[in-house]
Amino acid sequence: MTDIISNTANDFQIRCLIVDDEENAIDGIADYLKELHNFQIVDTCFSAIEAMAILKNNSVDLMFLDINMPRLSGLEFLESLQNPPIVILTTAYSEFALDAFRLNVVDYLLKPYTFQRFFQATQKAVELFKSQRFSDTPTVDKSNDMYIRQGDSFQKINCNDILLIEAMQNYLKIYLTNDKFIIHQTMSAIKEILPKGTFFRVHNSFLVNVNHIDTIGKTRLTINKKEVPISKYRKEAFMNSVVYKKLMSK
Q: What is the C-alpha separation between 126 and 209, in angstroms, rounded?
């Protein structure tokens, strides 16, 4: 998670990365962003490979991502990221919309799009950004107790009791043994505050507590009788991770 730039919801900068293999498309997004407040372009690039390097070395809050790119498509790239920023997909192809929203993108812009449509997409990103930074971000104290907003109050949950977390567009469902909670948050934001070495993102939509894994299969694992898919892009990383080795040493 990037640092909060200001304590007020009106004083912030959303750091953006533009990824597209067409220079005109990049220039068009950049020109539109110049008309809006609170957006700062960190970098631009022409491929997912370049974008990977930029994300490793820069703090990015929002990524404008093309789908049809050489070697690695935007969707394949997004699927491979463990902690993706907020994403607005930009593409000339409508048939990928279902896959896009399965990956929890904030919006899907079909080229050519108008400034009005672009503005609507960026406002969704702004609202999500503000919800992550200024309102519902859970906090964890030294005893591993997590405090999440439920209506007008806060609910205390011990992180060790979390079985898994499932992403549902801009919301998360937190599974406990005998309870569930839904919060307005993103997976990448909550992953940053959870205890290190205990949770692993095995799929773009699932973050699991490795201490509660019952079985591990070829493409799925089970936790408390619930089947969870393991992304082919994350399985190798999971099998080589510290948390997996910790699990196998028990």
A: 30
Integer Cα distance of 152 and 173 in angstroms: 18
87 vs 107: CA distance, rounded Å: 7
- According to DSSP, the residues that pair with 175 across neighbouring strands are 164, 180
Q: What is the C-alpha R_g of the chain? A: 19
Is the four-CA dihedral 104, 128, 106, 12 of positive or negative sign?
negative
Predicted confidence (pLDDT) per residue in 157-196, tens digit: 888 999 999 998 778 999 998 899 998 888 877 887 788 7
CA 129 to chain centre: 11
Question: Which residue reads 């991770």 in tokens?
Answer: 241
CA distance 88 to 97: 12
Terminal-residue alpha carbon distance, the chain? 31
Name the pTM for this structure: 0.56
Q: Give 4-63 pLDDT, tens digit per residue.
A: 222 334 568 999 999 999 999 999 999 999 999 889 999 999 999 999 999 999 999 999
